[in-house]
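ugh ok fine here u go
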Amino acid sequence: MKRVNVIVAAVILISSGCSKKSGIESALQPKASGSQISEVSGGKQITSVGSELPQPVVVQVNDDKGTAVAGALVSFHGDGTQFRPAQALTDSSGQVTATVRLGFAPGDYEMVAETPKTGGGATTLKLRQTALGYEQTLGKQVNDGYCIRCHDPESTTERVSNFENLTPSPHAFTDGAFFNSWSDADLIMIIAEGGTAVKKSPAQPAFGKTLTPRQIKAVVAYMRAVADLPYQPPGVKK
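structure:
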């Protein structure tokens, strides 16, 4: 899986009494500074290459006591990635909201939010986003049609999860700690032939007569893309 490092720099400037210049040029005039940056929402999202994330990314700036800081400058950056807005000042709740469009390379995009601390040093926040290529997008479509009801514990307005009704409980496709040790061949076998084919629960049905080999391979590609911990192919070193 190709990884693209995407840097989201949230820089908190001191509005007065500072003789040092920031490395970020901005027409915005910050009114305050903070010492912490945190995620409110928007991490670990999945979309197709070249598309916007389904939900905006929201970050928050706090001071060293955990109090929200209004008027701090947040700047977003990323190779091949677009942000709206590219820069903004935190609102009264200390937050900045931005829509994010990922690049055209499939794989993980690591977003880093960085806040320089008053007096030197910085604190950082990393957010992982995933862009799906063609095969992985097909796998997501198959997952949404056949798999998600049992493998996702959360119910939505569109579907009711069956997760809690099954024993043993299925593993979410994002469960890299469980699925990363499986070979592609074993994953293909359990999807096609059912749980008993690999000495697992018979509650896992066989989809070999429902899905095509191409669709089954696409599901595996999707599972590899969304795995958390991230999947590392055999023989590939970071």
